[in-house]
Amino acid sequence: MAEVFDINIRHLRGLLAIRDHGSITAAGSLVNLSQPALTQGIAKLERQFGYTLFERRSGGMVPTAMGRIVIERTEAALKHLAESAQGLTNVFNNPERLMTMTQLRAFLALADAGSFAEAARTIAISQTAVHRAVGDLEMVIGTELVERRGRAVWLNAAGKKLARGARLAVAEIQAALVDLALDSDSRSEMISFGALPLARPFIVPRAMADIAREVPKASFKVLEGNWSELVEPLRDGAIDMIVGALRPHEIADLYQRPLLDDMLVVAAGSQHPLASVERPTMDQLRSYPWIVAPANSPLRNHWEKFFAEGPRPETQIECGSVMIIGRLLTYANLLTLLSPDQVALQIRSGLLTQIGKPLEGSRRMVGIATRRSWRPTATQRLFLAKLEDAARERISNAALTGTWI
């Protein structure tokens, strides 16, 4: 099985042309390749993907089942490239048709590394080769893509737009390689996703553990952060999903799949004077200092809404780290608002306790956000299923215990 950057983009365009016209002769003229050259190109693609991609019939060439998989992924990849190049310049009408994988590989390495030297080291070629490939790509596009400041390099607006489309295009071709290697002992796939706080304690690790057991060759790349930190990597194709609290509104280019509801609880150390109070009053809750989330965060907004009527309690500490908050609660008579899953282990171990019932009006939907254009591979679909299984287990456990913990 080939590496994604070893695949020739013009040969991929030839696949679509053969699909549309049924012959190599007609397709060759559309991609500026002779019949022998395109014939050799298709044969090379078949070796790279490991399957026959077309059946040669008397009425023309017809894609095989595996060929259709490659063609569908190729069509999506080339669409990403075309959309990212659109409007960048008036020099060429369709600059994406002139791009090569060598150019895209060097450009994406440069975008990630921020310097020609580091990009060259990352992909194991010379700095001269990186300079030449990126320069050739800028000539194809007809505009500059990077700004050079000494040894450092930044993508300009055109570069950022093209980099996003290039990453998504490369991801589609990589997915085709993975799709066709399902029965191979050498199958290996990276599952890249972002994890928001609400998904980290249970749903994400449970699903990852299941995948690690069932698909030993699968690997994970996990980014942690808040929504604003992860949404652009999702759009760029650096990650394929975000797992955690969903946005309360629709997003044009993203699809949000709900998994379960989450409600906030008041948490405290097990030594807290209110630990034995089943239904604390608002005055009792106001009489102790609180740890609050950073300003303008969803958790902080829920806290401010909770104390909207009447005086607010003392806010002695502002902190967004659940680890630090958990330790603070065991040392002092402080209160805070948290998701039950975030402190479940501490509560089960007796270090922390939930005070009162979950807060009415604090319901949040936890789920998965993906690009609307994303089509998961078989392993990625299995991971989505494992996330759903983990969510159902979470709901079942809550129903059995009669609590949210």
TrEMBL record:
Q: Which SUPFAM superfamilies match?
A: Periplasmic binding protein-like II (SSF53850), Winged helix' DNA-binding domain (SSF46785)
Return the InterPro entries for the record.
Answer: LysR_HTH_N, LysR_subst-bd, WH-like_DNA-bd_sf, WH_DNA-bd_sf
Pfam families attached to this UniProt entry = HTH_1, LysR_substrate
Organism superkingdom: Bacteria
Q: Which UniProt keywords apply?
A: DNA-binding, Plasmid, Transcription, Transcription regulation
Q: Which GO terms describe its molecular function?
A: DNA-binding transcription factor activity; transcription cis-regulatory region binding
Family, similarity comment: Belongs to the LysR transcriptional regulatory family.
Q: Which PANTHER family match?
A: HTH-TYPE TRANSCRIPTIONAL ACTIVATOR BAUR, HTH-TYPE TRANSCRIPTIONAL REGULATOR
- Name of protein: HTH-type transcriptional activator CmpR
